[in-house]
Amino acid sequence: MSASQPPKVRCRQIAKDDLGAVAALLTSGFPGRTRKYWTSGLARMAERAPVEDCPRFGYLLEVDGVIVGAVLLIFTDFGDGTAAHVRCNISSWYVAPAYRAYAAQLSATALKLKHVTYLNISPAEHTWPLLTAQGYQRYSEGQFACIPALSRRPGRMHVRAVSAAGTDDHAGLPEYDLLAAHAQAGCLSLICASAAGRDPFVLAPRRVAYSPVQLMQLIYCRDTADFARCAGALGRFLLGRGVAGVILDANAPIPGLVGQYFKGRQPKYFKGAERPRLNDLAFTETVLFGA
Asked: Does position 228 have pLDDT exceeding 70, yes or no?
């Protein structure tokens, strides 16, 4: 490339026809992930209904027609029908080393929607200062690993799994569609019923190196206190499926749970008007791509 012919740099939305090339780029950029990891996750993104005025997959960076960078954007509209509450999980940002000079263009394009709350739930440690400089705030300081079966079970509680097809007896639950959709994505969707009402939970398998027990991560609950209250019943249900431990996002040790708090483990950031709730990772990369 001569000095008289500057490179043609373009940042544009990822189209369905680009998914194979994007998967190949991300496979090279994240050596710990297989190509199947990316193709399976992108296929799940393709199955989701698009959010109005938002890109379906994210953006890519082209230099002279060659894809050299990409950022995946997972948009979800949590609106109640009267107002939009759009959340975007920024995932898997990568630019080939030779083209890092153009990375700022990709980043600026990804963050241009002002009505959206952006999440970064798996940032590499070396990017933490950069996120702060970009206006992100940390909303989760660390994680709490617990053995829920060791918690006391207050009163009579019954735990039931929700299948991908749903269950008619829980159709009136506000989170009914969320539970069924996450079950279809391979998560474990549960309802803990008691005299106090019905509490929904979603958990996903979590792989932790050298862990002596099978673990899951809490993906969704209305409030972390709900999980702590139902932990005994949930833990006994999980033990029946061979799961002993559950990992939760937390800012401190969680009262009522037996376990250990790890400050600084997988902190999570947001940018926008709506501060996310702890342990609401519904429809994020953890669900669509897996741990």
From this structure: yes
pLDDT exceeds 90 at position 253 = yes
Report which of 38, 32, 235, 264 is spatially closest to residue 140, judged by C-alpha positions: 264
**153-192 pLDDT per residue, tens:** 778 899 999 987 666 566 678 898 999 999 999 999 999 9
Run of H or E residues at 228: helix 224-239
Helix (H) or strand (E) holding 122, with range, is: none
What is the C-alpha separation between 115 and 286, in angstroms, rounded? Answer: 23
Nearest to 246 by CA among 232, 109, 47: 232
Q: Which pLDDT band, with edges at 50, 70 and 90, does 78 fall under?
A: confident
- Bridge pairing between strands 245-250 and 137-146: antiparallel
Q: Which two structure tokens, joined as six digits, stand for 131?
A: 């996120």
- Torsions phi, psi of 266, nearest 5? 45, 60
| Two tokens, residue 164 | 């991908």
How far is 217 from 249, CA to CA, in rounded Å? 9
Backbone φ and ψ of 199, nearest 5°? -115, 125
Give the whole-angstrom CA distance, residue 40 versus residue 28.
16
For residue 143, give the nearest of 172, 122, 127, 126 by alpha carbon.
122
Measure the CA dihedral 239/240/241/242, to 10°. 50
Domains of the chain: 9-120 (3.40.630.30), 143-275 (3.40.630)
Q: 4-7 long-range CB contacts below 8 Å, 24 or more apart? A: 7/63, 7/64
Confidence of residue 289 (pLDDT cuts 50, 70, 90): very high
The pair of structure tokens assigned to 252 is 């401190």
* pTM exceeds 0.85: yes
| Spacing of C-alpha 147 from chain mean position | 22
Contact 291, 205 (CB under 8 A): yes
